[in-house]
């Protein structure tokens, strides 16, 4: 019988070729529709599995698992994935540029989402409820109202990004691309042509997502059993390990395109995925719980809310100049390791 660590390693390695194919499909979509839509499609397909699994856990009353996995997904995308993209992209390219408008909009929305999680958490600690249900009813009402507002903000963000201000999100030209174009080297991104049709791209994304869903299910299942034998804490597994394992394919895609000096696409995958989880997946879980009678709230434990707020602040500092290099990647990865250490000893 195959041991649980070996089973986990096999499923993790199975994601590597899928990540390479997913990266090629995402690049092809970006050539056809731009990095914004390419990154959005990649993030959406990458998060579909996570959203489905979260809703299934919610309906089974596993509120702690839902909160830990979704929060961990935001942290891993913001710090680990973006950090690795900056680091490995910086090793291949001295300095990289990305869209300043997109970075500013993404950073402000992530800060809003962090505040949306912090307010119910603070209310649970500081407010007192005198009516039926006391503090729990108060926090539940605040969480549901906050979830609706965050969902509306995500809809506004999509409209701003895809409809009213699409010109502000055009791909940022790279110095390397201009140099290649002037010296007659390999074709730049603007000179390349998409190789796949839209139907083929969507079909491949669908198949890859289905295979990743199966591999992720084995990953999570083997990790749960492994945690019982290894003694690792549930907080560490749920917030750190499971998001990395479940989103490994999407994570590697962002790093791969960053090494090819396509930082707008890499940021669209990494930061765009964080926004989608923070402004859609988490509020959507609250609304689904509201509709099905499951009192899931945005009342995270205080340390998790603080870690998210500090992570968003650090990412905003790092991306303020709309340029990246490997040292900025080291800073983001270091913060993720610090948070991971805290969860490990929690």
Characterization of the model:
The protein is mainly alpha-helical and 346 residues long. It has a single domain, classed as NCX, central ion-binding region (A middle domain of Talin 1), CATH 1.20.1420.30. The chain has a two-stranded antiparallel ribbon with strand order 1-2. Helix 1 runs antiparallel to helix 7, helix 4 runs antiparallel to helix 5 and helix 4 packs antiparallel against helix 11. The longest helix is centred in the middle third of the chain and has 33 residues. The chain is globular and about 60 Å long.
SSE map:
Layout: H1 4-33, H2 35-59, H3 63-92, E1 96-97, H4 100-126, H5 135-164, H6 175-183, H7 198-230, H8 234-246, H9 248-259, H10 263-292, H11 302-318, E2 323-324, H12 326-344
Antiparallel strand pairs: 1-2
Helix pairs in contact: 1-2, 1-7, 1-9, 2-3, 2-7, 2-10, 3-8, 3-9, 3-10, 3-11, 3-12, 4-5, 4-10, 4-11, 5-10, 7-8, 9-10, 11-12
Give me the count of strands: 2
Under CATH, the topology can be stated as: A middle domain of Talin 1
Largest sheet: 2 strands, antiparallel
Radius of gyration: 20 Å
Mean pLDDT: 80
- How does the helix and strand content classify structurally? mainly alpha
Order of helices and strands: HHHEHHHHHHHHEH
Individual helix count: 12
Stretches where pLDDT falls below 50 for ≥5 residues?
Answer: 177-190
Distance, first to last CA: 33 Å
The top-level CATH class is: Mainly Alpha
Number of domains: 1
Q: What proportion strand? A: under 5%
| Shape assignment | globular
Which strand order do you get reading across the main beta sheet?
A: 1-2
Q: So, CATH architecture?
A: Up-down Bundle
Helix content: over 70%
CATH superfamily name? NCX, central ion-binding region
Organism: Gonium pectorale (Green alga)
Subcellular location: Endomembrane system; Vacuole membrane
Family: Belongs to the Ca(2+):cation antiporter (CaCA) (TC 2.A.19) family. Cation/proton exchanger (CAX) subfamily.
Protein name: Vacuolar cation/proton exchanger
